[in-house]
Structure formats: structure tokens, C-alpha cells
Amino acid sequence: MIVREIIAAILFILGTFIYVTGIIGVFKYKYVLNRMHCAALGDTLGLLFVAIGAVVYYGFDMACLKVVLVVVLFWLTSPISSHLISLLEVSANPEAKGKEYEVMELNGKEKK
Fold first, then answer.
1. What secondary structure, in 3-state letters, does the chain show?
2. What are φ and ψ of residue 105, in 5° steps?
3. Are 51 and 82 in contact (CB under 8 A)?
4. What is the mean pLDDT of each run of 10 residues along the chain (112 residues)?
5. Which whole-number Å values give the CA distances from 43 to 15, 47, 99, 101, 109, in the listed order?
6. How far lies 103's CA from each of 31, 34, 81, 90, in Å?
7. How far apart are the C-alpha atoms of 109 and 80, rounded to whole Å?
8. What is the pLDDT of residue 61?
């Protein structure tokens, strides 16, 4: 019983740490795509660890099955919406192409 609580606490703390790191990244960066990247990674990974911690702490029952389904739904919709919003930002702001981000070739050299 105590081992399960320790593992759940570690997972909760790890998820909270990832959330806080994502929030710091959102406030640190100035460009919207960098901010979105920090927010998306913090949300998805932090939510995963918190949900696994809840399943470990409470045991697997119908309520935890609902939490797992919410996590799966979030993992399916969040990357798609983030990608569409970033695509809209890039297409709506073409003059910032050289200022805010760089286009890289596959071999690692900058595209002129």
C-alpha cells in the first residue's frame, strides 16, 4: 500500500514539474510558435504522468477508465489543433519568416 502511494506521489510530482516547466517556457519565449511548442509538450506529457499517477493511486476502475479515455482524446486532439494553429500563424505572417524562425534543410544547412 505504501509503495503504491510513493509511486503515485512521484508521478504526480513529475507531472506537476513538467506543467511548471511548460508554463515557464510559455512566459520565456516571445514568438508564438515557440510558446505553443512549450505549452503543447507540457500539457500532453504532464497530463500523462498525472493520469498514470491517479490510476496507480486509486487502482483501475471505471472512474480511472474515464480518465484514461480523456487522456487519449486529449492526445489525439491537442497535436492536431496545435499544428493547425501554427500553420495558420506561418501562413498569415510570411514577413516574419527570416526574423523569427529559420527554414532548415535535411542536411542541417540553412536554406537561403
1. CHHHHHHHHHHHHHHHHHHHHHHHHHHHCCCHHHHHHHHHHHHHHHHHHHHHHHHHHHCCCHHHHHHHHHHHHHHHHHHHHHHHHHHHHHHHCHHHHHHHCCCECCCCCECC
2. -80, 170
3. no
4. 92 94 87 82 87 88 86 86 80 66 56 52
5. 9, 6, 27, 23, 32
6. 15, 14, 22, 12
7. 28
8. 85
d(CA 36, CA 32): 6
